[in-house]
Each structure stands twice: as C-alpha cells, then as structure tokens.
Amino acid sequence: NGVAPVMGETSPTVSSVSPKLYAKPGGHHNGRPHLGSRSGSLAAGSPRPSLTRQPSAITEVTGDGSKPRDYLILAILSCFCPLVPINIVALSFSVMSRNSLQQGNVDGARRLGRNALVLSVVSILGGIAIIAAAIAFNWGRILKS
C-alpha cells in the first residue's frame, strides 16, 4: 500500500541501562535476600496471614447496635484537674480511639475508649482529692494563726 511502518525515534541522551546493573551483590536492592511482603495480601501457600491491620467487617456499629465511645469530652474536662500526666494520657487515648474507629478498627477503638474513660475518671477523682487536701491544709494553717 506504499506506507512503511514508522520506527520510533529514540533520544540519544536517554540511556537504556538496566537497573540490574546498579544492584548490590546478591541480586537484591539492599544486599539482603527478600524476606517477604507485608502488603496486606495472603500469598498463595503461605502458612500465615498478613501482618498488617485489616479493617473490621463492622465499621459503624458494635454487637449491641452502637458505635464505641471515645470519651473525648470527659478527657478534655479531666485536663482541668491537677493530675497532669494522667489526664494528658487519657486525652491521647481518646484521640487514638477516635482515629481507630475512623480507620475501621472497632475493637481497638473500644479498647482505647475504655482506657480513656478509666484514666479520665482517675484523673478527675485524683484532682478532687488533691484540691480537697490543699484546701484542708490551707484552712488548717489559717485557723492556727
């Protein structure tokens, strides 16, 4: 038909050197043998499942029909108590619980929410005890003088 196939032009500046020439000895990228992938898939014939977290099948509700609570308001209120390291940890557990629920990890969100609740209550009760002890101590000094 008179039309010849056009061959693709290649740039003389582009090198077509294989990346295998730059590999370290041993044939692997870092010189160590490839130990396996943690990409989230189950390899054919693999005796163990993936080590990455998989989202729960139930992401919005738990077995009783409600989503797990993160107790963020209680953790924020506990930050006003004078038991500083405990209330900051309670706040961080509450935020981690909310993040776990958004990622679909319902069991982790429930566990972290329960930890946030316990630490918030301990912080509030401990703060009340410290404030009561400080008031009693100061009133005792005022009454003596």
Automatic annotation (TrEMBL):
Q: Which organism is it from?
A: Characodon lateralis
Which family is this sequence assigned to? Belongs to the CD225/Dispanin family.
**Subcellular location(s) of the protein:** Membrane
Entry keyword set: Membrane, Transmembrane, Transmembrane helix
InterPro entries from the entry? CD225/Dispanin, CD225/Dispanin_fam
Record bears the keyword Magnesium: no
Task: Provide the coiled-coil residue spans.
Answer: none
Write out the ranges of the annotated region (Disordered). 1-66
Name used for this protein in its record? Proline-rich transmembrane protein 2
Residue ranges annotated as compositionally biased, kind Low complexity, are: 36-46
Query: Which Pfam families does the record cross-reference, listed alphabetically?
Result: CD225 (PF04505)
List the transmembrane segments.
71-95, 116-139
